[in-house]
Amino acid sequence: MALLQISEPGLSTLPHQHRLAVGIDLGTTNSLVATVRNGISVVLNNESGGTILPSVVRYLADGSVVVGEAAQAMQNEDAANTIVSVKRFMGRGLKDVGEINRLPYRFVGAPSSSVTPGGLPGGMVQIRTVAGVKSPVEVSAEILRVLRNSAEAALGGELVGAVITVPAYFDDAQRQATKDAARLAGLNVLRLLNEPTAAAIAYGLDNAAEGVYAVYDLGGGTFDISILRLSRGVFEVLSTNGDSALGGDDFDQRIHCWLLEKNHLSALGPRDTRLLLTHARAAKEQLTDHVETHITAMLSTGEVIDNVLTRSEFHAMSQNLVQRTLQPLRRALRDAKLDVADIKGVVMVGGATRMPQIKHAVKEFFGQMPLTNLDPDKVVALGAAIQANLLAGNRSGDDDWLLLDVIPLSLGIETMGGLVEKIIPRNSTIPTARAQEFTTFKDGQTAMSIHVVQGERELVSDCRSLAKFELRGIPAMVAGAARIRVTLQVDADGLLNVSAREMSNGVEAAITVKPSYGLSDAEITRMLQDSSQHAQDDMQARALREQQTEAEQLLEAVQHALEQDGDLLDQAGRARIETQMAALRHTLQLADHLAIKRAITALNDATVSFAQARMDKSVASVLAGKNISELEAK
Amino acid sequence: MQLASFDFQQNHFDLFGLAQSFQIDIAQLEQQYRALQTLVHPDKSAHLADAEQRLAMQRATLVNEAYQTLRNPLRRARYLLSLHGVDIQEENNTLMPPDFLMAQLEWREAVSEAQQARDGAALDVLEARLQRETRELESRLALKIDTEKNYAAAAELVRKLRFMERLAEEIHAAYDAIDN
Predict the structure, then answer these.
(1) A8 in helix, strand or coil?
(2) Nearest CB neighbour to A431, from listed B38, B57, B175
(3) Which chain B residue has its CA at the smallest distance from A490's CA?
């Protein structure tokens, strides 16, 4: 690129160089991608022209994958191979997925190959599809891959990274699974950001808000409450609480059960189960603006369902779900040592907060109308994009704000008798680290098992097991003489790293473990190979975009040079360059990166002597008025 | 505040530019904490090399730890006494005055009764009383440490405060139990 080498001293070649970064809201029901353009956060359109991508992935027998609306359209017909609400299974084992019988999937436990070096079974539930067994991480990666591609197409370049949002109440297993999915989709994760915090950023920066705010976030499958203090550009999360298995989906389930009961149905196949769930969801949405709704559907048996559901019936059957969100509210306030009266505003996030009974319950609890001046479906992605822009290094003078988030659940270590010794309490500001010393309980003991758990309960069996490993090589001593220091470090993504060290006698044995439910690097590699077809497509698409971008930059630079120094060229020289420019513009219409590359080379070749002439001219202008001795002194 | 001055070895008070005493200006601590995090937080170096990100995490971790230590009166007192080389003997010195221990037993009974009766209002009363008595102990602690420099007496107050903290945790757990 001969011409691009000439630029003003001290200026980069591309003065407006902006590092492309996005925020991704990977939701239970819908996913979105947003970016900051000209200082404003905007949700990007996907290929089908919409901004919202249904989080639905369909696997076909030939191994191909369909994501979004097209997959959603087939969810009744091909229910067993069309995965909806996969987020509910992230980092979860078979026993965690309570509604297994009510879902149209063929679940399988984790394969034995996913037993990690830590010794615990990987444990994450998997789904058997027509295209093979898929883990929730792989399914989520398909969604992220589509979002990445549409973002790169819309922005015309490769992303330097993405901020991915997670429910604030996601535990370490769920966070790690989300990060693994992003890696699998080829995304550089700048940060995992808590969804309510993302919403607070979007709301707070937009409204220059100051004071203590609550964010009530009821999504498709998760519920979060976060209490934040906003003060002079600092967003400080004071406490968070929630339920990572409570969301709009549960309201659909209630209507679904009601339909089964009303029509004396039992043991429906996958297709009819999905059909009724789809109708249940539509009915729920209808009841936001209407006092009653008609549900009509024809089952695969030919049986016709025809019911009227009133809003008051719906409210009655879902009342305890609404109540279940109030308990985390009280706990979050207590942890923040605050009272309802201290809350200046309540920001509502998530499509499920459109339900009138939710708005009513929140209003009653806080004694004030919740803030609804933002789009509850988009605010998380918009906030994530603002954070991504900052983390990518695109900061400008006026966005000097800081985010201080917390860990949602306590971290601890198993001690004698299956009890948990809490090491890092919930709502500790991250990043944080805490060390605790343990000792041997038998004479001559040379190994010690360390088991890290997450949760608030006292018994290990009631908490989530995160990592289990053995520390060997402890010098044989009398019981209680060895000192083993275990350090838990939680980074700014809320992810845990554990290390242990034997302190006495100067002997050191350190080990660092990755939580055991996460995917090992080997598993990630296998999955990447499995999706090599995708990878091929992705590489082609990426090469094309790279060449297109390079071509556009070159054309712009040559055009600029012609306007500035066109007088250095004779007519023939100018015609040669313009011919190659036209040829390059033509190849841009084609989806052939090699053709573009050839045309770029041709244009570069045609401009060599012009570039030389410009170089001479610019050197001459720098040298003008200086004598030889001055130049030699340099 | 300059980053160049960031020293992993300095004590928590120096880190925030505060005088080394039990009584501190919490507002000033908060302000300094935010100013410091604005400089060291990993979000500020997410676009830099891995080594710089790791350093940022370590710095921010230390700033968080120092802030949590100084903000909580019990942890602040413990830390101050450790700077003075005083062994508080929290784990092995259980020689508390009998009337204090009696009062502890009564507290516990009251909390568990309130929990069993699912009586939130009773818990509110107990919590308010506990806060009053905790503040009373803290002001005596300020006197012993800052004015009299009687660290042995301060150590006993710290041990008492630890009992109060455990009670606060029990009240917290009782609220949660009532919620369920």
Answers:
(1) coil
(2) B57
(3) B61
Nearest to A155 by CA among A477, A548, A441: A548
H-helix or E-strand spanning residue B149: none
| Pairwise CA distance, residues A124 & A134, whole Å | 11
- Coil, strand or helix at A26: strand
Q: Report CA torsion sign: A473, A478, A480, A482.
A: negative
Catalytic residue, candidates A172, A180, A195, A243: A195
| pLDDT tens sequence across A464-487 | 888 887 777 788 888 888 888 888
How far apart CA A465 and CA A313 sit, in angstroms, is: 40
CATH of B3-71 given 1.10.260.40, 3.40.50.150, 3.40.190.10, 1.10.287.110: 1.10.287.110
Please answer yes or no on whether B175 and A404 come within 8 Å at the CB atom.
no
Each residue's pLDDT tens digit, B107-119: 999 999 999 999 9
- Beta-carbon contacts of A212 under 8 Å, excluding residues fewer than 6 positions away, are A227, A228, A229, A230, A238, A336, A338, A342, A343, A344
Across the interface, do A431 and B61 touch by the CB < 8 Å criterion? yes
State whether A402 and B172 contact (CB < 8 Å): no
Q: Which of A184, A243, A255, A190 is nearest to A219 (CA)?
A: A243
Q: Which two tokens stand for residue B46?
A: 């997410």
List average pLDDT for each run of 10 residues in chain A, which is 634 residues long: 38 57 96 93 87 95 93 90 93 77 79 40 80 93 96 93 95 92 94 96 86 95 94 93 91 94 85 90 95 92 92 95 94 94 95 94 96 90 95 73 93 87 93 90 84 87 82 81 87 88 66 52 56 57 76 86 87 90 87 85 86 74 48 40
Which residue shows structure tokens 């730890």? B65
Tokens matching residue A478: 């009398």
Whether the Cβ atoms of residue A337 and residue A278 lie closer than 8 Å to each other: no
> Does A238 lie at the interface with B, CB-CB under 8 angstroms?
no
> Of A255, A228, A208, A295, whose CA–CA distance to A102 is shortest?
A255
Distance CA A67, CA A113 (A): 28
Nearest Cα neighbor of B76 from B128, B26, B36 is B26
Q: Are A313 and A290 in contact (CB under 8 A)?
A: no
Per the annotation, the verdict on A87 as an active-site residue is yes
* Alpha carbon distance B178, B118 (integer Å): 5
DSSP conformation class of B29: H
> How far is B112 from B119, CA to CA, in rounded Å?
10
Of A391, A429, A491, the CB nearest to B47: A391
Residue A359, SS3? helix
What residue ranges of chain B are covered by domains with CATH 1.20.1280.20? 98-179
Return the structure tokens found at A271. Answer: 């297709």
Residue B12, CA distances (Å) to B73, B83, B90 in order: 14, 10, 21
The amino acid present at A274, given as its one-letter code, is R
Q: Where are the beta strands (DSSP E) in A460-530?
A: 464-471, 484-490, 496-502, 511-513
SS3 state at B75:
helix
Active site residue A25: yes
Q: Which of B65, B67, B172 sits opposite A334 (nearest CB)?
A: B172
Assign a CATH topology to domain B98-179: Monooxygenase (1.20.1280)
| A371 neighbors A50 (Cβ within 8 angstroms) | no
- Give the type of residue at A99: E
Smallest CA–CA separation between A291 and chain B, in Å?
32
Q: Are A130 and A105 in contact (CB under 8 A)?
A: no
Which residue is it, tokens 């991480």?
Answer: A137
Residue ranges of chain B whose CB lies within 8 Å of a chain A CB: 34, 37-38, 41-43, 46-47, 57, 60-61, 64-65, 67-68, 172, 175-176, 179-180
User: What single-letter DSSP state applies at residue A429?
Assistant: B
CATH 1.10.287.110 domain extents, chain B: 3-71
Cis peptide before A515 (omega within 30 of 0): no
